Amino acid sequence: MLAKLLVRYLKPSGWLLLGVLVFQAASAVASLYLPSLNADIIDNGLTKGDTDYIWRTGLFMLTVSLGQIVASIIATYFAARAAMKLGRDIRDDIFERVSGFSEREVTDFGAGSLITRNTNDVQQVQMLAMMGATFLVTAPLLAVGGIILAIQQSANLAWIIAVAVPVLLIVAIIIISRMVPLFRSWQGKLDNVNRIMREQLTGIRVIRAFVREPIEEERFREANTDIMIVGRKVGSLFVLLFPAVMLILNVTVIGVIWFGGIKVDAGEVQIGTLFAFMQYVMIILSGVMMASFMTLMIPRAAVSADRVGEVLDTHSTLVPPVDGVTEFPTPGSVAFQNVTFTYPGAEHPILSDITFGAAPGETVAIVGSTGAGKTTLVSLIPRLFDVTEGTVLVGGVDVRRADLDALWRTIGIVPQRPFLFSGTVASNLRFGREDATDAELWHALEIAQGSDFVSQMDGGLDAAISQGGTNVSGGQRQRLAIARAIVHNPHVLVFDDSFSALDLATDARLRQALWRELPDVTKIVVAQRISTITEADRIVVLDDGGIVGLGTHEQLLETSQTYREIVESQLGAEAAR
C-alpha cells in the first residue's frame, strides 16, 4: 500500500522528483570528489612544498563545496514541495471519500480514527516521501561510490569496509524489525486517545452533570499511559540504534587509523591516501546510516499507509446509480412499500414491513416509544441507509435509482441533534442554498420563530456562530436548523424530533407558520409530543419496528391502544376519549 500511495500521488510531481534526483546526484558526486582532492594536496602540494598547487586545488575544493551546498538546498526544496503536494492530495482524497460514507462506514471506522488517519497517518507518509526523495539518490551513491573510490585509494584496507558495512546492516535490520509491530500498536493507541478526548469534549456537559470527571480523567490517563509505554519502547530502540551505529563507525575509523598507520610506516600507503581512505569510510558509513534511517521510517509509514489505504479503498454502501434519475414525476410525494431494515451485524430487523405514504403538501407524523425505529425510518428517506427489503419512493422515484444530489436537493432535514457550523447566522442558513437573499433568510427565520433573537444578536445575520452553535441556546440552535432547512427550499421537510427544545407556545406558532407559509411542502414529523401532531393529515404509530396504528388523531384514539396510551400519558385520560 505504501508503494501504491507514493506512486499514485507523486506521479503529478514528476518534474520535481527529477530535479531532486539531478541535484542530489550532483551533491553526492561533489562529496565523493572532495577526499581525492584533499589527498592530492597532502601528497603532492605539502610534500613538494608547491604553494601554488595548494592554492589552486584549495580554491577548486571550495568551489566544489559551494556547488554541493547549492545542489543540496535546491534538492531539499524540490523534495519538500513534492512531499507537501502528496500530503495535500491524500488529505483531499480522504476527505472526499469520507464525505461520501454512509453512517455505517463512519461508525465502523470511528470519527476519532478517521481524524487520525487524515492527519497523523498522512503526515507519516508525507515525511517518508520527503526524506526518501532527499536520500533516494544520495545514500546509494555515497555508499557504492565511496566503496569504489576507497578501493582505488587503497585495496589493502578494503577488508575493513567489507567487515564494517555488513555488521552495520545486521544491527540496523535487527533493531528495525522489532519496531514494526510497535508502530502498528502505537497508531491504534493514538486512535484510542483521540476517541476518548473527542468523547470527553463532546459530552462535557454530561460528564459534569454526573460528576464523572475523576472517572473520565482516569480513563484518559490509562489510554495516555498505554501510548506512553509503547512510545517508550520505540524510543528505547531509537536510543539503541544510533549509539550502535556510532560505535561501529568509530571502531571502523580506529581500525583504519591503526592498520593504515602500519601501512604508512611500511611505505605501502601515503599519508594523503590514508586520509582520503578514512574520509571515504566515513562517507560509506554515512550512506549506510542514511539508508538505515530511511529503513527506520519505512515501517511506521507503511503502517500509516495501510490505515490510509483502508479508508481510500472503502466504498460507501450507498452506491450512486450509474444514470441516476434527476426528474421526479410527483415532487413532494413520499411512499414506503413493504420496507424492512436491519442494521449490519444485528440479529433482528429494526423496521419490519413498513407501508405508508404522504402526498405532496401533506403532513405525516411518526410517533412511538423510544427505540421503536422512528429516526431510522426517516433516515431512509434521504437514503442515509439503504433498505434491506422493500422500496422507498420520493417524488415517485425509488431513492436507489435517484441521483443522490438531485434527491438531497428535494429534501430538507432537521436532525434530532441540530448542528451549526462555525461562521455566521447567514452562512449557516445558506448552507444548502448559497444564492439565498437576505430577505429569504429573514422570511425563513420568521417561519422558524427565530427572527426575534437573531435581530437582537450583534450583527444580525452577520452575528458569529461558534462551532456546533455552542454560543446559542438549544432552542435557538434548533430554530436556526429549521430555518436552514426552509431556506433549502425543498419539496419534502423531515423533522426528526425537531421541536423538543421549544416551549409549547413557540412550538404552536412555528407549526402554524409552517402549515401557512409552506402549504405545498410535504412534512414528515417525528415527534414525542402529541400536541405537536394532532392536526397531522396522517399519523404513523410505531412499536417494536412495526406499524401498529395508521390514521388521523381521532381515528387512532378509537383504533390504536398504543396511541391511546401515549395520549393518556401526556394529555390525560380525558383527552384520550
From TrEMBL:
Cellular location of this protein?
Cell membrane
The regions listed as transmembrane in this protein's record are: 12-33, 53-80, 127-151, 157-176, 237-259, 271-298
What molecular functions are annotated in GO for this chain? ATP binding
Q: What is the lineage of its organism?
A: Bacteria, Bacillati, Actinomycetota, Actinomycetes, Micrococcales
On whether Oxidoreductase is a keyword of this UniProt record, the answer is no
**ABC transmembrane type-1 domain location, by residue?**
18-300
Query: What keywords would UniProt list here?
Result: ATP-binding, Membrane, Nucleotide-binding, Transmembrane, Transmembrane helix
SUPFAM superfamilies on file: ABC transporter transmembrane region, P-loop containing nucleoside triphosphate hydrolases
What is one Pfam family matched by this protein? ABC_membrane
Question: Where does the record place a coiled coil?
Answer: none
Topology relative to the lipid bilayer, per the entry, is: Multi-pass membrane protein
Highest taxon of source: Bacteria
Coarsely, its chief localization is: membrane
Protein name, UniProt field? ABC transporter ATP-binding protein
Q: Where is the ABC transporter domain?
A: 334-569
